[in-house]
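Page 42, continued from yesterday. The earlier attempt failed because a stray header line got pasted into the input along with the sequence. Redoing it now with the clean sequence only.
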Amino acid sequence: MNLPASGRRVLVSGASRGLGRAVARAFAANGDRVAVHFGSRADEARATLDSLDGTGHTLVGGDLADPAGAVAVVGAAAEALGGIDVLVNNAAVNLRHPLAETPYEEWVEVWQRHVSVNLLATANLSHLAARRMIDQGSGGRIVNIGSRGAFRGEPDHPAYGATKAAVHALGQSLAVSLAPYGIAVASVAPGFFATERVAPRLEGPEGAAILGQSPFGRVAEPAEIAAAVLWLASPAAEWSSGAILDLNGASHLRS
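This time it went through. Structure tokens are written below.
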């Protein structure tokens, strides 16, 4: 069960922009072929696809909150790429909902959305991709995008923190169960990093406080997180299966 160092078939969920785009670019620059998944941002996903080095990449659209949508996404990616060797579970939602300010009906709806996208979609994609990897017989990699918030708490985004903690736990369970098939599973737990979505916060009145969370006095660039994901998906990283890699610039240290 030998996983190649490049030329792999990679599915990246939520790759239309931000970290997903950076991850897709990192794999493409490594010589891999990438299926760029998007939920609703087709134009941005096309921009991601057009920015990738190499050839043989593809776009795959679908609603991962729907279990049938996950089936369609993995099936389309595998058909276009000829199989799947690496899955990066990046798609997620992060909606503000502090308990004291959120009506109960909205609270329930937000929690259901987070669980459906952040946790269940990750579990469903992992099942579908791993079964293909098992059938292919050449091993594989699953890398989950978790969060620092799983450990330090997210008072304004509690469902996000809770579902990311569950993603970490899921990854560790799958690392044990899939190791006999040569499939390694690991997670990254990023802190704050710069994307289009958070740019207004970094440029606004709270920007200095966010930058000050790390003793480096800055936030991460998506490419820094993507580099770690690329390594965890490499043949050299098999012994890191089950790991949760903190990527937060020493802004939160856990024992």
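Notes: The mean pLDDT is 97.
Reminder to self: strip header lines before submitting.
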